[in-house]
Specification:
single chain; 206 residues; 9 helices
Length: 206
């Protein structure tokens, strides 16, 4: 295993920030929890896990092929990922007052409906796509990762969002009131946007 605690800790922190940034998964999870309680929300969280493991695998193996063909490709991706993170943070701050909206198609009852909703929402989540395909290479040297490194990356990618989503589902009553407050939404978006910018700067200079 080539990855150390500092690299994994920085990546885990970025995953936590990504989770705390309101987006499609939050919308779907809160909507299902409000409509059917924790019983309706936890299958969606499991569906999200599948995508959270699939995206880093696609990023690692796809980028490994690109590195074998084009020298210096990872350096380009590193700075591109930093720029993407900073842009995401700036956009989040610029639209800090934007409230979340719900999609009733994601609230259909049933365990499999919830699981599929979670899988679809993470596979089509632009935040996840940008993070794993554009930002993940900035944390690790893809050309040097081993099987155990990949396991650790996928484990963090799955466990941190899953834990956060399950906690969010359990506390949905408080979350519903929180999301109903424009001031609270603005504070959350400003904080998350600032954190994204700082992580982007860290990726560029570390």
């Amino acid at each position: 295993m080539t990855l150390g605690i500092p690299e994994l800790a920085l990546y885990a922190g970025a995953l936590l920030i990504l989770f705390l940034t309101p987006g499609p998964v939050w919308v779907a999870l809160v909507a299902r929890a409000i409509s059917g309680g924790f019983q309706a929300a936890w299958p969606l969280a499991l569906g999200v896990v599948v995508g959270d493991v699939l995206w880093p695998l696609l990023a690692i193996f796809g980028l490994s092929f690109m590195v074998s063909v084009y020298a210096g490709f990872l350096d380009i991706l590193r700075y591109a990922g930093a720029i993407i993170f900073i842009i995401m943070g700036v956009l989040l701050i610029r639209h800090a007052d934007r409230a979340l909206s719900t999609d009733k198609r994601l609230t259909r009852p049933g365990m499999w409906a919830g699981f599929l909703a979670g899988l679809l929402v993470i596979l089509g989540n632009p935040k996840a796509i940008l993070f794993y395909m554009g930002v993940l290479p900035g944390f690790f040297d893809i050309a040097l990762v081993t099987g155990w490194d990949i396991f650790a990356i996928c484990l963090l990618s799955a466990v941190i969002p899953l834990f956060g989503n399950l906690v969010l589902a359990v506390m949905v009553g408080h979350v519903k009131r929180f999301l109903a407050s424009p001031k609270a939404v603005r504070r959350t978006n400003l904080g998350a946007g600032t954190a994204l910018i700082l992580v982007g700067i860290a990726i560029a200079f570390l």
